[in-house]
Amino acid sequence: MVGRIGCQTYTWEMLGSSWQGSPDDILDAVSGAGYDGIEFSNAMIGDYWRAPDRMAAALAQRGLSLAAFAYATTGFTDPDRYEADLAGAEQALAFCRAMSVPLCLGGAAAPSRVDYARHIGQAIRFYRAVAERGAAAGVTVCVHPHSHHGSLLESAAEYDALLEATADVGLMFNPDAGHVVRGGQDLIACLRRHRSRIAHVHIKDVDAAGDWQPLGGGRIPWREVLDFLRQSGYAGWIVAEEESEAARADPASAIRRNRAYLRTLEA
Fold this sequence. Notes:
By secondary structure, the protein is α/β, with parallel strands linked by helices. The protein has helices at 10-13, 23-32, 52-61, 82-99, 116-137, 156-165, 177-182, 187-193, 222-231, 245-249, 251-264, and strands at residues 5-8, 37-41, 65-71, 103-106, 141-144, 172-173, 201-203, 205-206, 212-213, 238-240. 46% of the residues are buried.
């Protein structure tokens, strides 16, 4: 297997108010499933992101590492939210610096694609500002495009334009295999084209209808993907996300199944 295997907390975040557990409950589930680490989002980490010492202790107690920290709000395209979003990103950078992990910024999104240039321009302004602050703080900052919630980053051309517009400030790329494919791209071509910018990788599976599936249950050729990453020298984290209907029914069981599937690819 390439690198270390982590689990993302969106599996619980997507449940909304029906999830009444705590960050410690998630840590227990991820540790019990046999992952090497966890990637928390700002929506799920609770007070830990203001107490990195306690976060480090909670991880160590369970034999886990922190793979990254994910920060997202409403898509970074609303100029009225810019200062608040930037303040949150600066808090996230402080946490990431203390934990020695990358910061992964959510994808640009807006209620519609009307006035696309203005919306994406605002998001690029935000990504550039956070990347510059990350460079000053010694924190790697990545962008994680997605394919839902009003995404403005789906096609190959849209990925290319964003990464070109942020290359000079050192913004890195956190591809999500499922979102790349669901957005209509050739996954290996995307990874190959932007390999020099890849600092963190997410994996989840999707079927031909665009519905999320457990790993191995969709149409992504995982051996080919992992072989490409290995052969290209990638040694960072591989972070599994699980957003299928099975995960909605039983998150802990779903992430255990994904970890078991990934072990079959290690042989």
